[in-house]
Amino acid sequence: MSRQLTVTFNNKTIALPCTSYGMYDLNDLWRAFIAPQDIKANKQPNQWRNGQRDALAETDDVLVAKYRNNDEKVNWTTLGTKKGLMCYAAWLHSDLLMAVVQAFDKLNAESVPCQSAGELIDVASASLEELNELITSKTHLAFKAEDTPDITFEHKQIYEDSIHFSAVVRAALAILDGQVCSYSFDEFHGLLKQEPT
Predict the structure, then answer these.
(1) In terms of DSSP H, where are the helices of the chain?
(2) In b/e form, how buried is each residue of 5-37, taking b as 16+ CB within 10 angstroms?
(3) Separation of first and last alpha carbons in the chain
(4) Fewest Cβ atoms nearer than 10 Å: which of 26, 27, 98, 111?
């Protein structure tokens, strides 16, 4: 999936490519929307100096990186994660921030499969039922076979964890079905001891 961000602001649209490590060049935003009016370049990313910028640098949400053009000249630029890009946009102009937010909303919407809520519930239910069957059958094979050796403490813990995990899965299925889930641990233990069909 392409992570290129399409930003529209003041009747101008640009594409902001995302690096392979999830960052955007903040200078692209400045050059496209701010530079024509920013004659003294007071709003360039390297002029963004405040406490928020320092905090973003500490978390690597904003960093300065160097790169080479085709002419082998070394250049420096300021990169930002989604968080860094949005904070820089807010520093530039509140309306530009909203344009960036809308661009991310659109990008996220395009990445979500077009499925109805009912279809998503059906898929989730089928996956959970398959998982529950796997948990149950594997637990029986490991702990209920006649030739099972002595059970160690570690094996017992795995068995109990399986019961709890099965309970979580069945609770999720009940929620998807719109039911009230009220199974107790003992009830789940009894269900799990039943031979798988």
Answers:
(1) 26-33, 51-58, 82-92, 94-111, 117-143, 153-176, 185-193
(2) bebebeeeeeebebeeeebbbbbbbbebbbeee
(3) 41
(4) 111
Highest mean pLDDT among 43-57, 66-80, 120-134: 43-57
Beta-carbon contacts of residue 161 (< 8 Å; ≥ 6 apart): none
Query: Per residue in 32-44, pLDDT tens?
Result: 999 999 989 999 9
Q: How far is 5 from 191, CA to CA, in rounded Å? A: 50
Residues 6+ apart with CB under 8 A from 24: 5, 16, 17, 18, 79, 80, 81, 82, 84, 85
Neighbours of 62 (CB within 10 A): 25
DSSP string, 79-137: EE-HHHHHHHHHHH-HHHHHHHHHHHHHHHHHHS----HHHHHHHHHHHHHHHHHHHHH
pLDDT digits (tens, 9 = 90+) for 75-101: 889 999 999 999 999 999 999 999 999
Q: Using one digit for the tens of pLDDT, what is the confidence trace for 174-183?
A: 665 555 444 4
